[in-house]
Amino acid sequence: MTTDVHQLDDGAWISVNDSREVNVSDLWLLARSDFCGCETTDFLAEGFVKVGVDYPDIQARIAGQCIACGESGVTDWLTVGRVVDPNSGEFYGVDHESVHFPEKRTRLAHPEK
Question: How do the domains of the chain map onto residue ranges?
């Protein structure tokens, strides 16, 4: 089954299989992040900029700011949830209160030969 993922309401929501699943305005604790100079970033999510699927993970780049130092910008890719059953499309969101590790995507869309 194909998983349908897109943004709604000018980046305020991520829809998975036509169901609003992830919203902004959550506080994310980011570790090992290049977002700002803080050891851990207290990141206030203000809007989803890009969404994508790195099966089984649903990932997003999120605009927002560190509430500790005031730095604003866009994160690297963050996993916001996971499709746990490809047949039913069942989705589980991540726990926003845990520590997250942004990642830079390094895999090429079309691998070089």
Answer: 5-100
